[in-house]
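Posting this for the archive.
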Amino acid sequence: MTRIAIHTVAAVALAAVVTAAAPKFTSTWKALDAGGVSFAGKKVAALIMSDDESLRVSGEEALVREMAAIGVTGGVASYRIIPREELRDPDKAQGWYARAGVDGLVAMRLVKADTRKTWTPSMWSSPSYSTLSGHYGYGWSSVYVFDPGQTRVDQVVVVETLVFSVPEDKLLWAAVTESINPKDANRVIEDIVAETVKEMTKQGLIRKAAK
């Protein structure tokens, strides 16, 4: 007579108290002729598109610092050259960039801030599922009733970064980054800025200063 085993597993909900992860690039794009463009030795403006003034200022300064760390000393925060009341006007803002002699613009903006739930059935991590031989006998002799598994809840922040040539009024490079469980807004911007500068360096848009 076949033995029927009934398994009941208590539900486990994991709150968002998990370790923050470094920003990850989920997509990137590069203009075909961007390879011939380099901002090395040129003035590059940093722009954080946010109504939070403190976040915008700290984010732009972080980007300038990251560029300076690899020898791009021409970095400038947008809040230093464009009056706040004219920042949202495209024509006026571009006029300020042109008069300041800006060659490149790195613009960042928040695309989405959301929660993500990931469900993992605990049965698939049990010894009875780890091998075919182990599961074969278990599968024929047992009846599975209910296993709620585990639910992980993460805070997800998606940020878009765009790099423009100001004189040509042209998009050169674009990327979307995803940050999981960031500690705070300022920290996530700083982390994304650091990863973005590394990626721009790899793409040849920014080159390290010669030693």
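Confidence is low (pLDDT under 50) at residues 1-18. DSSP finds five helices and nine strands in the chain.
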